[in-house]
Structure formats: structure tokens, C-alpha cells
Amino acid sequence: MTIIGQQFVAVGGGAQDIQTIKGEGLSDGGVDALLAWNGSSYDEYLYYSESDDINGDGTAAWGDLNWEAIQEPIAVGTGMWVNTQGAATITFSGEVGDVTSVAFSAGMNLITQTLPQDIDIQDVVAEGLSDGGVDAILVWNGSSYDEYLYYSESDDINGNGTAAWGDLNWEAVTATLPAGYGFWLNAQGSGTLTFPTLN
Questions:
Q1: Is 18 strand, coil or helix?
Q2: Which of 48, 66, 110, 161 could form a Cys-Cys staple with 52, CB 3.0–4.6 A?
Q3: Would you call 173 exposed, middle or buried from its count of C-beta atoms within 10 A (0-12, 13-18, 19+)?
Q4: Does the predicted model carry a pTM greater than 0.85?
């Protein structure tokens, strides 16, 4: 299980379709899957290889439990688990769009940054998160979660009146959100995360 993220829009704008996500090294027969959290459960997209031929044209496709291909948009900023039987590569395609913000709701949100390059966590601007380090970004490191707590301007952990991501000791952290990976945001309320634009 690895958390990955959709960071591209369709050429010309708009959400990419699930079928534009390509897999290499994935298993036949719908045993490998993408799992996108929708706020209360997972939307599951099963991988079917060329030899499974669920499209009838000899191409691989994402489908459902009935071995039928799915046509569904995957918006930029969507995080998802990929569950594979072995080592695999997932490739996203499209173009870098002008979307820089991802909306979140109260509770757990599986999202990704909107820029397909590594970014500094301190460059992530939050609107709607609580004071006092109760809301957090959780990044899966392969065996556990690295937790980055949100501290508002009034918490002032930097000493300069700005908001910051920090640790349990109310100290700002140095951390990178890597390109291509998703993360959880645990929030008490709704709002938006805004990410840097392309340099």
C-alpha cells in the first residue's frame, strides 16, 4: 500500500479520466487497485491488464468488480492508495493546470499537492484549520505516519506572527511533501489548502 496523488489536469483543462492513469508491473485479473477516499468510504478502481481485455481492444483498463471499464474523472489534488501484489509503477499524464487549492471537509481527507514537484511543507497555506496544533497533515513513510501539526498566526510558533506546520513541542518543522505522493489531512472543520505555483 502506497499513497499516491493526481497532480495533472487534462490537456486543455478539466479533470483527467481514471483511464489516463497507467500501470506497469500490475497483476492481471483485477487484484491490484487504486482506492480513492470520498469522505466516508473508498472508491475502488481495479486494474485489468491487456490480456484481461475488458475494453475488447487489447488495452489495459481500470474497472469494477464486474470486469467492466470505468470512465470517471479524477480531479487534481486527489490522493489515493495503490494496492499492488508486487513492485509497480503508476504513471499520471496531462498538464500542470492553474488549480492551486484543494478543498477539505471536517474529518480525514486523502489529498495531494497540486504541483508535480517537491514542495516545502511551510509553503502550504491553510484556511479553515484550527489553532493549537489540533489539525494535522499525516504523511505515510512506508511503516508509519509522519505528523505535521498546524499552528495558526495567533499560535505564533515562528515568533513572527505567521502560521506554520510544527511538531508536538510547538516548534516549526523542516519537511518536504514529495511530488506524486498523497497524504491525509485531519481537520476539525472545512477549508482549503493552497499550494505553491510552478516556478
A1: helix
A2: 48
A3: middle
A4: yes
